[in-house]
Amino acid sequence: xxxxxxxxxxxxxxxxxxxxxxxxxxxxxxxxxxxxxxxxxxxxxxxxxxxxxxxxxxxxxxxxxxxxxxxxxxxxxxxxxxxxxxxxxxxxxxxxxxxxxxxxxxxxxxxxxxxxxxxxxxxxxxxxxxxxxxxxxxxxxxxxxxxxxxxxxxxxxxxxxxxxxxxxxxxxxxxxxxxxxxxxxxxxxxxxxxxxxxxxxxxxxxxxxxxxxxxxxxxxxxxxxxxxxxxxxxxxxxxxxxxxxxx
Amino acid sequence: xxxxxxxxxxxxxxxxxxxxxxxxxxxxxxxxxxxxxxxxxxxxxxxxxxxxxxxxxxxxxxxxxxxxxxxxxxxxxxxxxxxxxxxxxxxxxxxxxxxxxxxxxxxxxxxxxxxxxxxxxxxxxxxxxxxxxxxxxxxxxxxxxxxxxxxxxxxxxxxxxxxxxxxxxxxxxxxxxxxxxxxxxxxxxxxxxxxxxxxxxxxxxxxxxxxxxxxxxxxxxxxxxxxxxxxxxxxxxxxxxxxxxxxxxxxxxxxxxxxxxxxxxxxxxxxxxxxxxxxxxxxxxxxxxxxxxxxxxxxxxxxxxxxxxxxxxx
Lengths: 247, 314
What we know:
The structure holds two protein chains of two kinds.
Chain A: H1 3-8, E1 18-29, E2 32-43, E3 47-51, H2 58-65, E4 73-78, E5 81-82, H3 88-94, E6 96-98, H4 111-116, H5 124-135, H6 150-162, E7 168-172, H7 180-195, E8 199-203, H8 207-211, E9 216-221, E10 224-229, H9 231-235, H10 238-245
Parallel strand pairs in A: 3-8, 3-9, 6-7, 7-8
Antiparallel strand pairs in A: 1-2, 1-4, 4-5, 9-10
Chain B: H1 2-26, H2 29-55, H3 62-78, H4 84-106, H5 111-130, H6 135-138, E1 144-145, H7 152-174, H8 177-194, H9 199-225, E2 227-228, H10 230-233, H11 237-249, H12 256-274, H13 279-293, H14 297-304
Antiparallel strand pairs in B: 1-2
Helix pairs in contact in B: 1-2, 1-7, 2-7, 2-8, 2-9, 2-11, 2-12, 3-4, 3-5, 3-9, 4-9, 7-9, 8-9, 11-12, 11-14
């Protein structure tokens, strides 16, 4: 990291235990407003759920936080530094990891290689084996990732993020399209990591999946935040019910 | 059975290396020249592979780096009377510098756009070297004829060392974190960036290394030809043939370009000798057949058959 880049980053006051703050974040594609004046905070060492109907702007928001899109307006602050419009690898270096909605492992690389390539930690081989053990993929470590099942690829993508030890992990539908046993396994792993000090922001399409696992839920609709609160509060929120069920 | 095949492979590799070392001492001039050309094309294919094989950025302008190296060596000998080893290395240095300058803008393009842009870079370089404006330096279309005054054996071993270095660097890349990261760019560049991999820096590094070896090989080859001109130096066949060789042997592997370069150059020589008119046609048919039947190349196929150990070291 160059010193110049360090100086260019504006210092912003850190609010309480918030690891990530979004302030009036806006993103337009042509005349379509994908995310509109969105503000919320992610608390450290918590699981925050991000829900909303199709096209609500959830994935766009992920792409803004991780630098794949540039913001049109507003600020994204991570650990006290403004990070919007930094290159994706710089944001990753600062400690934000992510997975993608459509799982993106490196197909023609072995499981071990998939993990080692991301390593920023000491003893990368040991760490990779440890994570493969944790995910139950240890016996497949020499196989190409393209030979894994969809659920196994999701697990691999999740443990791959851990190889560079980010503080905040963004998961885009970690439980979608896989069987309940694998879903439970993934959620179990997420809770275990939370106990180890990680913070999660999780996109989930299915309300039922996310309710029981999140400490806080943020609801988006048409690019705007329509509600924020605990699972109970969200369940009884009129606007949320309207957005989901058209009532 | 498979163990036996693996050992046969190792013995063949050792025998081949040994033969290439003694070739100019024991072969007649024609066969030694063939051996030299094999080395030359291995150097081009292997250096092409360092960028395109590992990162998946298919470079259709490799001849530009070879050509810049040829001119740098030719000019440094013809006009500045530099000692030949220095002028050879200057060939590599100029090509690498050229890649560094071109790479910054060009490596922002991806996939087919990168391929076409590099094609344009190579053609543009050819035109530039042939213009009247460059005449004081490049002699434009007349080309530069010069006599470096070194023996065939010196050039042969220069090329052999270049090949050895290039293959050794490929091995080092293939078995390192740097190489894994280049492969991650090939597999999914966005996902790679999302885990803190600075893809721009890595691509430019690989591009520069690739160009250095192409320029070095080109520089040595110019002292073999005693002549450079824009048409022959930047000819697209010096891009296409190494690509076919690398693809045939196995892209993104260490020894693939060596196997492809050797087999196809021997085949090429045979076709030249027996059916001259069919020369390029055979290459065309071969390329089509390859993409259909062996898209991953000979070496990857052998790895899948478990005839060769499945490792990045080979």
